[in-house]
Each structure stands twice: as structure tokens, then as C-alpha cells.
Amino acid sequence: MADIALPEPPKPGQPPFVLRAITVVALALSLFQLYAAGVQPLGLFYQRPIHLGFILVLCFLIYPATGPDRPRGVLGWSIDGPLILCGVLVGFWVPWNIDTIANAIFPRQIDVAVGILTTLVVLEAARRAVGPVMTGIAAVFLVYAFAGNRGALPWLSDYMPGILNHRGYTVERLASQMTLGAEGIFGIPLGVAATFIFVFVLFGAFLEVTGAGKFFIDLAYAATGRQRGGPAKAAVIASAGMGSISGSAIANVVTTGAFTIPLMKRLGYRPAQAGGIEAAASTGGQIMPPLMGAGAFLMSEFTRVPYVDIVLVSIFPAFLYFGAVYLLVHIAAVKQGMTGMTAEELPSVRAVLAEGWHFLLPLVALTALLVAGYSPMRVGFYAIVAIVAAAAGRALWDFARSGPTAAGFVALCRRGVDLTLRALELGARNAVAVSVACAVAGVIVGVVGLTGLGLKFSAMMIAFSGGNLILALVLVIIASLILGMGLPVTAAYIVLIILVGPALTEEFGVPLLIAHLVVFWYSQDSNVTPPVALAGFAGSAIAGSKPMETSFQAWKFAKGLYLIPLFMVFNEAIILGGPLPLVLWNGAIAILALVAFAALLEGFLFAPMPLWQRAVLAPAIVAMFWPDLGTEIAGAVAAVAILALNRAASRRDGPAQPAG
Q1: Roughly how many angstroms between the first and final C-alpha of the chain, as a whole number?
Q2: Dihedral class, residue 307 (left if φ above 0, else alpha if ψ from -120 to 50, else beta)
Q3: Domain ranges of the chain
Q4: How far apart are CA 412 and CA 368, in angstroms?
Q5: Residue 608, phi then psi, degrees to nearest 5
Q6: CA 74, 79, 80, 82 torsion: positive or negative?
Q7: Which of 9, 4, 118, 127 is nearest to 58 (CA)?
Q8: What confidence tens digit (pLDDT) does each residue in 168-186 have?
Q9: N or C: which terminal CB in the chain sees fewer CB atoms within 10 Å?
Q10: How far, in Å, CA of 17 to CA of 29, rounded?
Q11: What is the pLDDT of residues 136-159, one digit of tens each?
């Protein structure tokens, strides 16, 4: 459920016995998680260490020390063998010794030694599964904890700016912080990964192997394919559906883009445009309820706001984002004189629903259980049961209609078992990177809590921004882009909210939930913002376009990613609620502001827009974001007037002509 770009599991190069070992461990992990989710919930010092132990073993099996393209050999196994055993030890140690650890006044030396070993093994797992940047950041934080007069590296304090100085901590104290409590590696990030995230990753795996992804793509095509720029609009809708399943912008680009990008190119979109549209749409999958990648689960734990409430308040901002992308796609299609696809080229909505309507049942069940107040972990368990039941019921219905035979029933059962095992293995594999990322994020969170770095960072943020909230948000955007160069979205969100969250809430007065939503939204910007734009690069590979050109197109189409969080900050009612007239007013001007911005950006809405109209629209848009009712009304009136003039011009001049 996190946007992990590095590296792909090297399955083809593994010898058969390793592949079998991966399958066995993955199945054991998924079954353990299902047991904990639906049968017998476990305490945090059982659930989290055991989950991490499984994940570490899987990680070192999937990612060899010698790299994906070379056999391990004696040298590789001499490294990976002990690391796999260390993974087993990590999963075993705390649950087995929990009573002794909990009752000890001072930590035992053996517990400290295991804590040091656990930290080092987690860092190595992160280097392989997530990439060296996150490992390096975590290592810097660990060194920072030692840099103080009473720490293991007191001489480093001489090189620290005054505001960053602290007392320093010993190896024993830091190891205890990392592994003998709930504030380090076994803290909230790993706790969320070991419960909510895993079960929904597993749910996504079951949807994937049963064909739900193809159903959502076909449904999007059937609904929008005949419109102008139909494949691009289908990409927007399909990415909203697929993003809720995959939780990864890059996986979303690769999945839906393989279908949508070639069709967009055939319709007339430039290759860079096609790749950029897919990247922008796929990034929106991370902010699309009900799953929102891992963000909604983490946000719920950090803010203590019920998960279902976060999902509900996120619906309208997600609608705004996808609406803005959809409108920009439509404008681009009209400007270039595109038409839709023919009926013969498209499936019908009725045929698609007849073939895959049962895939909607688990999503309905998931939503209903959330609204009913079930815990997200239990909801995920029942959602998995629902998709298995729906797929099995549909298979049995088709079997009964096709003339049942004993041999056919045996084959059907074998296929069902095979798909179930594939889903269990795929879910565990997909969870490796995000779980490792959350474990390493726990290292960073633990150091921040131990040293008070969060408050120090808040003071620096206030100093740099001069107390100006807009400048502070710009600093958050820059920091998220820099972190996004090497961190998955989930990890970037955790690090950012730990560092800048206190400043946004305590010093700038941003409500807690809005601060988390803003940071989470801005954590997505590395998917679409040059020079990083990981989803843009994935789109360019499929489109056959230049990576940077595609990234700039993604950046243009994803402008809502930057504007909508600003609107949340200055118009709190769309998130926190309030008097109904105020909520409706804020919702209306949010839609109007984004429509006006799309017209300003493209110089076109119903017809080409003269320069003077664009010049008037710019301050009108700013006014609609301004937290003052009179200013908002003035901006809205000006925007409506300009858009009405543009509409009148289109009626006077006739339909837009194709671009030359």
C-alpha cells in the first residue's frame, strides 16, 4: 500500500528451492495475519515483532545480497543465511521474553544486544527493499542520537548548530528505545503496517488475482470511451478505482497505463501528454477513499480520529482532485479537436457489469462494515472473505450453467485453491517493502521522541518562514519533494508529520486532522513533480516519451495536489464541517476555483480565452482561497463573470476547431 519504486522482487532469477521457501513463508505470514485479524487479535508486543520477523525473512529471501541478476553462491548465502536467522530471532525474542522485559527495572544486556542486532538487520532490509536513501536517513538519525555530551559520540556535538544540541544517549539507551518499547521500531508505523495495511494489501491481492482490476478498467472505458478524449477520461476513472486497490501510484501507472496510454496516443494525445495524464490520475489513487494507500490508517492512529471519519472527510477533496484532472483532460481534448472512440471499439456498460458485478459486492461490504463501526482490521478480514465468497459463487454459477461434470468440478476446485494460494503469496510479497519502510520510520520516530528533535525542527520552521503560514506550507512542499527522492510516500508522510506536524498545529494553528491531510497530500508530490516524478517516469516508459517532458505534463495535470490542501487550510469547513450554508459555500467556491484555475492554466474552457480574461482570473482565484467572506464573494463573482463571457464567446464563434 505504499509507493515503492525500488526494486522489483527478482523472482525469475531465484533457484526453485528459494522460490518454494518464499512461497511457504509468505503463506505462513498471510495465514498468521488472517488469524490475528479475524479469529484472535494479539497484543502489540506479539503482533508487531512476529510480523516483522516474517517480513525480514521474506525480504532476505526475495532480495539476495548479490543482487537480482547474480546467483547467491557461497558468499551470498554466508551473508543472507545469518540474516534470515536474525529475522527469525527478531520475531521470536520479544514475544518469548515479554514478561521478563516488562518486569525488568533495567534492560538486560542480552536484550540490549538483540536490540542492536534488530536495528542493524532492519537497516539492511531497508537498503534492499526500499533503497539506500531511507537507510542513510535512518542512520543519520541514529548518529544524531549519539551526538551529545553524555552520548556515545560526544565530539559530534561541537559540529551541531545550537538549536540541534541535546544531551546525547548511549548505545544501550538507544537500543532500548528502539526495541524494548512502543516508541521505536515496534511503534505506531509498524503497528499500522502489521494490522490494517497488511490486511488491505491482502484484500488488494485477492481482487487482483480474481480479475477485479480488468473489471474496473473495462467499466471506466465503457462509461467514458465515447466522449472526447475518452481513453484519457477512462484513465482518470480507472486510476481512481485501481488506486484504491493497489495503493501505489507506480503500480497504478503500470497496471492501467498499459491499456490507457496506447489508446490516448492513438486518439491524438502526444506521448508525453498521455504518460503525464496517467501519472497524475494514478497519483490520485493514493488520496482516494476508502483505502488511500496506507495514509488513512496511519492518520487514524496518529490523530486518534476514527478511520471511517477520515474516509468520509476525504471524499470531497478526492472528488475535487479527480474532477480537476478530468477537466484538464477534457480541455486538452477539445483544444485538439479530438473525438471519442466508436461503439464497436468499446465494451458496453451492461456487458461489463453482467460479467463482473460481483466485484462490487466486497467494496459494498467493506463500506457498510466501516460505517457500522467495525475496526479496520476486522473490516479487511471480512472484505477478504467477501471477495472469496463472491468469486467462488460466480465460478460455481458459471460452472452450473455450462453443464457440470465431476472432472470439471475437480478442476474448478483446483483453480480456486491455486488462486487463493497465489493471492496469499502475492499479498505477503507486496507487504514486504511497506512493512520494512514502516519499521525504519519507527527508528526515525524513536530518535525524534528521544531527542526532542520535533520541537527543534518546529522552531527552525517558524524561523525560516517568519511566522507566515504560506511560506511554512511551501517549506513542507520542498521538504516532501526532497524526501520523496528516496522515500516511499508512506515513509515520507511519517517523517514529515513527525517533524513539521507540531509546528503546523501548535504554532500556526492548523487543526490536527487538516495538518495531517495537508502533509499526506504533499507527500504525494514526488510522484508528479520534476525532477523526481517517479510516476511520471513510469508513464514515460510506457508512452515512449522523454521522462522530463512527461513529468512536466504530470505536474501540470496534477495541480490540484497543491491547491486543494491550501483550500483545506484556509477553508476548514470542507474538512471539519460547520453550519450547512458555510459548508455548501466552501464546497461551491472550491469547485469554482479549480474550474477557473484549469481555464487559466490552459487558456481555454468553452473557447480560447483572451489574455485579459486570464489576467482577471488569476487574482479572482487567489481571492476565492482567501479566508475572508467578502474577498471570497468578490473573487467568485469575478470568476463567474469571466467564465460566462467565455461561454458566450463559444456560442458566438461556434465549436472549437482542431489544433493545426
Answers
A1: 43
A2: alpha
A3: 130-392+434-577, 579-652
A4: 31
A5: -55, 140
A6: positive
A7: 9
A8: 899 999 999 899 888 889 9
A9: C
A10: 18
A11: 888 999 999 998 888 888 888 877
In whole angstroms, give the CA distance from residue 359 to residue 550: 33
pTM score of the predicted model:
0.76
- Contact 14/67 with Cβ under 8 angstroms? no
- Where do we find the cell 552520548? 151
Give the closest residue to 338 by CA, choosing from 265, 235, 239, 261: 265
What is d(CA 314, CA 586) in angstroms, rounded to the nearest whole number? 15
CA–CA distance, 324 with 557 (Å, rounded to integer): 8
- Considering 87-96, 335-344, 454-463, the range whose residues carry the highest mean pLDDT is 87-96
Q: How far apart are CA 330 and CA 340, in angstroms?
A: 11
- In the numeric block, which cell numbers belong to residue 321? 482532485
Using CA atoms in the order 495, 499, 505, 511, what is the torsion angle rounded to 10 degrees? -10
Q: Any idea of the CA torsion for 545, 547, 549, 555, to the nearest 10 degrees?
A: 120
Neighbours of 40 (CB within 10 A): 7
Task: Give the whole-number percent of the chain exceeding pLDDT 70.
Answer: 92
Q: How far apart are CA 118 and CA 57, in angstroms?
A: 13
Residue 599: half-sphere exposure toward Cβ, Cα within 13 Å: 30
CA–CA gap between residue 69 and residue 11 (Å, rounded): 10
Rounded CA gap, 66 and 78, in Å?
11
Q: 604 pairs with which residues across the strands?
A: 608
**Coil, helix or strand for 405?**
coil
User: Can you tell me the distance from the alpha carbon of 77 to that of 14, in angstroms, rounded to the nearest whole number?
Assistant: 13
